[in-house]
Each structure stands twice: as structure tokens, then as C-alpha cells.
């Protein structure tokens, strides 16, 4: 299938009550099969941007289009959009009262009305792929952070989203667990999953991204191929940002 | 005059003779308490969901109800139902008064207990459910309520015991419950000690098993406690 434009925003702006212009006229687009990594200093609006795309936040101005159709700010119908746009959070947010398997099959059964048998089969296959088959009857509290996050990814994947939003999904993990999660994401990228990824793992960003977006103070300051961005950042702000990064990396 | 009496002087025969009366009264108390507790729970569930959804107007009514219910004694509520309502032409049986009174009281307590549980489900937890395409009703049903219910169990249990204890005022609406029987026997036979002993024993027998079951459930919940506790 030809790649085509799947999601775009035009002049997307957003303020919070006590925080003006968190997003300030963002123009963005992503093709099917593309992986866009968003980097930027803490508080620059990365999470807010993803949350707007998934209708977890209302926007103040601009347009978001999914599959060429404008997403209207009608929150009664938000569930129809979110069914197509998957999201994984930094804090995993598995449902603590349900087993791993029940976490995964809940939405496909209740939201998509798929047959329990089929969904379970798919869930088991996906769990096996991320190396968690033997944890399918465990409760989230019995899993490590890395395991939880892999389950959260599977839970989003089983909905067959058209696009997946990952918001700093390794930021809460111990270093030794970061790899096991990022490997799953790299694999997804290889298989052609469309993704917008917010991360502070620069090595991973370089490896996974088709395109890097540098966000600062609610604006897209720079947009480039990963090699270009990391090697020859154009803007002063991006240079500064990448420098602090080297510094932090050395510190640790 | 009250005087100290030796327990050995209790009239066992009297106790045996009137035990069936206590049993019958206990059954009545249990039945009404059970209906009242279930109705309280449903009322509380309804109130807490309305409060979570912040449904306009309805929320104000419910807040008013909760204040009213928590700040008036059951005794007064029962007086109102039994002696007040007939004045405007509404005649309720003793049993209906007892059930309605208990539910009016218990509903607000259950609502507050569930409310605390609902508040403990974080916003981002519900957002993760929303992001899977669930509707609000589904998020409430499958994500929020099961968690809220689990964390509320200790409070719900405490409310249950509280409500059973509160049944002891039902005799004011002429319901032949435990208290009523005890008062009756004292009035007729002057066997105060025996009648009171049986009253205490009856409530103890009623409450003890429930109390034990509750603490067992609570311990189990703590052990299986989910969320951030006990991660590997
Ligand atoms: N719910 C909110 N209410 C008010 N301000 C918020 C809220 N969420 C985020 N902000 C503010 O918006 C800015 C951008 O936040 P965020 O999108 O989380 O940044 P990032 O993910 O890039 O670190 C920050 O200044 C933050 O304090
Ligand atoms: Mg963030």
C-alpha cells in the first residue's frame, strides 16, 4: 500500500488556564509507516501535543486532521478517534485489578466488540512476541516496570491503531529495563507501524526516527532527518539542548 | 432501684422460654438491616457516580441529601417518617419506615465511602482507558468502580456494622425488633437483667460474625493490594 498522509495539524495552539501558549501554532504531518521523534526541553509541550492528538486535551485554535478528516472538538465522540490513535504513557497505567491478559483483551472486546476467543489468541501471540507469555495470568503489581510497559504496548497494539503515540515510555524505568522496551518499539518501527515518539533517549531516537522534531516553548523550532539533526543542529536552541544532553549523559 | 445481682441468679428458664421471641426479632432485624444495607449501597453508588460525573443540578440535590442525612440522627429521621408524614397523608408501615430511614441514613455514608475510593483512581489511569477508545460509561464500569470498590471495602464494612447497630432505634416506630422485645419483656415481667443480657447477646451474635468476615476480607485486600504497593 502506498504511504499517505495520515495525521496532520495546522496552526495548533493550546493554553492551560494558568499557562499560556503551551502549544503555539504547530504545523505537523506524518505519513503512514513513518516514525517521528519529538525532542525538546522539559515543559516545552511535548506531552500536551500528544494529548491533543488523542483528544485528552481540548485545543484552542488550529486544526487536527486524521485520515484527511478534521477532528472536531466534540468530546462525546472522542472515543471514535481514540480507537484509531493508540497511546502509551510514561507511568504504564495498567489496570491493577485485572490480569495481564484481561488488561489486554478488555478494550477489543468491549470497544470493538470482537470475539473473546479471537482476541485472546491475538493477545497471547503478542505477549509471546514481547517475551511475556508466561506472565499472562499475573497481575500488574507482580511485574517489573519494563514488563509493565511492554504489556501497555501490547494493550495499545491489539486495538490495531492507525497511529501510536508514545510519551516518554522509558523515562520511569531503571536503566537495565530501558533496552527491553525500546527493542519492542524498534521492532514495531521495522514492521511499519506509524508512530510519534517523545523520548529523551537520544541514541534510540537516532536509531528509530525517520524524522526528528525539535520542540521549544510550544513551537517547532527544527525538523530534520535524525543524522542531520543530531550532527548539525541548525538552531541555537537545538544546539544548546543537545549540549545539555551530552553533559547530563556524562554526569551519569 | 438498681442493685448489683449475681449472674447465677439469672432466671435460665425465663431466658429459654423467651429465646424464640428474640430469634424472631433478630430475624426481623437481620432482614431489615440487609435490605437497608443493599439499598444504601445502591443509593451510595448512584450518588457517587453522579458526583463523579458532576451532573448539574442533580449534584446539588445529592450534596443537600448527604448533608441532611449525615447531620440528623436516625431517631429524628424515623420520627419524621412515622409521625410527621401521616400529617400530610402519607402513611407508612413500621417496616417501610425502618427500611427507608436506614437507607436514607446509610446512602450518604456509602456514597462518601465510594467517593473516597473513586478519588483514589488517578486521572491518568482513566485517561489510559479513554485512550483505548472506551466511553465514559465503560471507563466507570470497568476501570473506576472495580478499583474504587476494592479500596472502599474497609469503609463499606464499617458502614455495614454501623447500620446494623443503628437498627436498635427501630422500636420507636413500633417495629417488633430486638430492642422492642427486650423493652416489652422488661415491661411485662420486670426481668430486666435477663432481657438485657439476651439483647446484648443477640446483637453480639449478629455483629461478631460480620465483623470477623469484614476483617478477613480487609486483610485479604491488603495482601492482594494493587497499585503501587508490592511491586517486584
Ligand atoms: N493540566 C495542566 N494544567 C496546567 N498546566 C499544564 C498542564 N499540563 C501541562 N501544563 C504546563 O504546560 C507546559 C507543557 O507541559 P508538557 O506538555 O507536559 O511538557 P513536556 O511533556 O514537554 O515536558 C508546562 O509548563 C506545564 O507546566
Ligand atoms: Mg511530558
Explain what the structure shows:
The complex is a heterodimer of chains A (252) and B (232). Chain A has 252 residues and is α/β, with parallel strands linked by helices. Chain A has one domain: 3-Layer(aba) Sandwich (Rossmann fold). Chain A has helices at 46-53, 78-82, 100-110, 116-129, 145-157, 175-190, 202-208, 226-231, 236-251, and strands at 5-16, 19-31, 35-39, 61-66, 69-70, 85-88, 163-167, 195-198, 211-216, 219-224. The longest helix of chain A has 16 residues, at 175-190. The N and C termini of chain A lie far apart (44 Å). The mean pLDDT of chain A is 94. Chain B is mainly alpha-helical. Chain B has one domain: Orthogonal Bundle (MetI-like fold). Chain B has eight helices and no strands. Chain B has helices at residues 12-53, 58-70, 74-84, 94-119, 123-130, 136-166, 178-189, 192-223. In chain B, helix 1 packs antiparallel against helix 7 (178-189) and helix 6 packs antiparallel against helix 8 (192-223). Chain B is flat, with a radius of gyration of 22 Å. The A-B interface holds A 54, 56, 78-80, 82-83, 85-87, 89, 91, 93, 95-97, 106-107, 110-112, 139-145, 152, 155-156, 159 and B 124-125, 127-135, 138, 142-143, 146-147, 150, 225-227, 229-232. The complex binds adenosine-5'-diphosphate (ADP) and magnesium ion. Magnesium ion is lined by residues 46-47, 168 of chain A.
Amino acid at each position: 500500500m502506498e504511504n499517505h498522509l495520515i495525521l496532520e495539524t495546522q496552526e495548533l495552539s493550546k493554553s492551560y488556564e494558568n499557562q499560556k501558549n503551551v502549544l503555539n501554532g504547530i504545523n505537523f504531518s506524518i505519513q503512514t509507516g513513518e516514525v517521528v521523534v519529538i525532542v525538546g526541553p522539559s515543559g516545552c509541550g511535548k506531552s500536551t501535543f500528544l494529548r491533543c492528538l488523542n483528544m485528552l486535551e481540548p485545543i484552542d485554535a488550529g486544526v487536527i486532521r486524521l485520515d484527511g478528516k478534521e477532528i472536531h472538538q466534540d468530546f462525546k465522540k472522542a472515543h471514535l478517534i481514540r480507537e484509531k490513535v493508540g497511546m502509551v504513557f510514561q507511568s504504564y497505567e495498567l489496570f491493577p485489578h485485572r490480569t495481564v491478559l484481561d488488561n489486554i483483551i478488555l478494550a477489543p472486546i468491549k470497544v470493538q466488540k470482537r470475539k473473546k476467543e479471537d482476541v485472546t489468541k491475538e493477545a497471547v501471540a503478542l505477549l509471546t512476541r514481547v517475551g511475556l507469555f508466561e506472565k499472562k495470568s499475573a497481575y500488574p503489581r507482580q511485574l517489573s516496570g519494563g514488563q509493565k510497559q511492554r504489556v501497555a504496548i501490547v494493550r495499545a497494539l491489539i486495538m490495531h491503531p492507525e497511529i501510536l503515540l508514545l510519551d516518554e515510555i522509558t523515562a520511569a524505568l531503571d536503566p537495565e529495563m530501558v533496552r527491553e522496551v525500546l527493542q519492542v518499539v524498534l521492532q514495531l518501527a521495522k514492521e511499519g507501524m506509524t508512530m510519534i515518539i517523545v523520548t529523551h533517549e537520544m541514541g534510540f531516537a537516532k536509531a528509530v526516527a525517520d524524522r526528528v522534531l525539535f520542540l521549544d516553548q510550544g513551537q517547532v523550532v527544527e525538523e530534520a532527518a535524525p543524522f542531520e539533526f543530531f550532527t548539525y543542529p541548525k538552531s541555537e536552541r537545538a544546539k544548546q539542548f543537545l549540549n545539555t544532553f551530552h553533559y547530563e549523559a556524562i554526569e551519569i | 432501684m438498681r442493685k448489683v445481682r449475681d449472674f447465677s441468679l439469672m432466671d435460665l428458664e425465663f431466658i429459654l422460654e423467651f429465646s424464640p421471641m428474640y430469634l424472631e426479632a433478630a430475624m426481623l432485624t437481620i432482614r431489615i438491616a440487609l435490605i437497608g444495607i443493599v439499598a444504601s449501597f445502591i443509593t451510595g453508588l448512584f450518588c457517587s457516580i453522579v458526583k463523579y460525573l458532576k451532573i448539574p443540578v442533580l449534584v446539588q440535590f445529592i450534596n443537600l441529601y448527604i448533608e441532611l442525612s449525615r447531620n440528623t440522627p436516625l431517631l429524628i429521621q424515623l420520627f419524621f417518617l412515622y409521625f410527621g408524614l401521616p400529617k400530610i397523608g402519607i402513611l407508612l408501615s413500621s417496616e417501610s419506615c425502618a427500611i427507608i430511614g436506614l437507607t436514607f441514613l446509610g446512602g450518604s455514608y456509602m456514597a462518601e465511602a465510594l467517593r473516597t475510593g473513586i478519588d483514589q483512581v488517578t486521572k491518568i489511569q482513566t485517561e489510559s482507558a479513554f485512550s483505548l477508545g472506551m466511553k465514559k460509561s465503560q471507563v466507570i464500569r470497568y476501570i473506576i468502580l472495580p478499583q474504587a470498590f476494592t479500596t472502599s471495602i474497609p469503609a463499606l464494612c464499617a458502614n455495614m456494622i454501623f447500620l446494623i447497630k443503628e437498627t436498635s432505634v427501630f422500636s420507636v416506630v413500633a417495629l417488633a425488633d430486638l430492642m422492642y422485645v427486650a423493652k416489652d419483656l422488661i415491661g411485662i415481667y420486670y426481668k430486666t437483667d435477663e432481657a438485657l443480657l439476651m439483647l446484648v447477646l443477640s446483637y453480639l451474635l449478629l455483629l461478631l460474625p460480620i465483623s470477623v468476615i469484614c476483617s478477613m476480607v480487609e486483610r485479604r485486600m491488603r495482601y492482594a493490594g494493587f497499585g503501587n504497593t508490592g511491586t517486584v
